[in-house]
Amino acid sequence: MDHMESYNIAVIPGDGIGAEVVPPALRVLETVAGRFDFSIRWNLFPWGCDFYAQKGYMMPPDGIGQLAEHDAVFLGAVGRPDVPDHVSLWGLLIPIRREFRQYINLRPVRLLPGVRCPLADRKPEDIDFVVVRENNEGEYSQIDGRLYRGTDAEMAVQESVFTKTGVDRVLRYAFELARKRPEKHVTSATKSNGIIHTMPFWDERFRRIAEEYADVRADQYHIDILTAHFVRHPDWCDVVVGSNLFGDILSDLGPAVAGSIGIAPSVDEHAPTSRRPEIESARNGGSRYLDRSASYRSIPSSIAR
C-alpha cells in the first residue's frame, strides 16, 4: 500500500470575518484530502488583533519559530478598525512574508459563473488572469524615518529598495507562469516616466528577462493606464507582474472587476527548493470585506501542487 502524503498546516483565523470563514474552509479541505488520498494535521494559532489587545503584540516573539515547523500557513484575515493598519500588518503578515522569504504573492483573478460582473457584457471567459506581486522588497521597506514630530517642520522619509536578485526572480516567475498558460503573455506594471531610478531599473530587468522567453509575449504599461485597461480591457491580461506597491493595488482592482475583492484568495510563495512554509490567505485585503466563498476555494499551495 502506498504511503499517504501528510501535511502539517498552521491555521491563523485572524480577525473579523476570518474567524467565521476559516472553519468551513477547513472542512472543505478535509473533503479534498479524502478524495485525493492525503491527510492534514491542523494546528490552530489565536493570533491577531484580539491577541494584540490582550498581549500587546500580534503574535508572540517566537511566533515565526512556531510556524517554521509547518508545511504551510492558512490565514483568514487580519485587521480591525481600532488597531492601526500598520500595527496589524507589520505585526503579523509582513514578518511571516519576510522571515520565510516569501517573495511571490500570487493572486488569481477570475470571473466565476454566477457572479455579477460590474463591467457590462463581460463573461467568465473574458476575465481570467493572474497578478504576480513582488512580496519582499520594493516600496514596502523599513528604510525610513520621521523627524520633528508635532512641528511645522515635521517630515517623513520612506525609501524603496529594488535589488537585481529581487526583481529578476519575480519577473522570471511571471514568465515561467505565463509559459504554462494558453495565452503565454506577460504584462509589466511600471511608472518609469515619473519614478526615475527604480522603475527604469525594473524596465531594464524586464526587457533582459524577456529575452530568455522568446515564446512568451511581453509588454508593459504605466500603472495609471494599466488600471484603466483592467476596467476597459480585462481580456487583454494574462499574467501581470508588478512591484510590491503596484502589485498590491492591482490585486485589489483585478478582483473588483471580477465581482468582488472578497472572492480572490492569494498565496505567498518562496523558492521551490525552500523548506520554509508558505502562506495561503482566504481573501485579498483586510478583514471587513469578505465573500465567504473565497475562503472555501482557498487551498494552501503546498497542498495544491
Report on this model:
The chain is an alpha/beta fold. The chain has two domains: 1-102 and 270-305, 3-Layer(aba) Sandwich (Isopropylmalate Dehydrogenase), CATH 3.40.718; 103-261, Isopropylmalate Dehydrogenase (3-Layer(aba) Sandwich), CATH 3.40.718.10. It has helices at residues 18-35, 49-55, 63-67, 85-99, 164-179, 198-210, 223-232, 244-257, 292-296, 301-304, and strands at 5-14, 38-44, 72-77, 104-110, 128-134, 144-147, 155-158, 185-190, 217-222, 239-242, 266-269, 278-281. The chain has a ten-stranded mixed β-sheet, sandwiched between helices. A hairpin with a 7-residue loop joins β6 and β7. α5 (164-179) crosses α6 (198-210) and α7 (223-232) runs parallel beside α8 (244-257). The longest helix is centred in the N-terminal third of the chain and has 18 residues, at 18-35. It starts with a strand and ends with a helix. The model is unreliable at 284-305 (pLDDT under 50).
Alpha carbon gap, first and last residue: 22 Å
Report the order of strands and helices: EHEHHEHEEEEHEHEHEHEEHH
- The gross shape turns out to be globular
Provide mean pLDDT, rounded.
Answer: 88
Give the tally of structural domains. Answer: 2
Uncertain runs with pLDDT below 50, 5 residues or more? Answer: 284-305
Tally of DSSP β-strands:
12
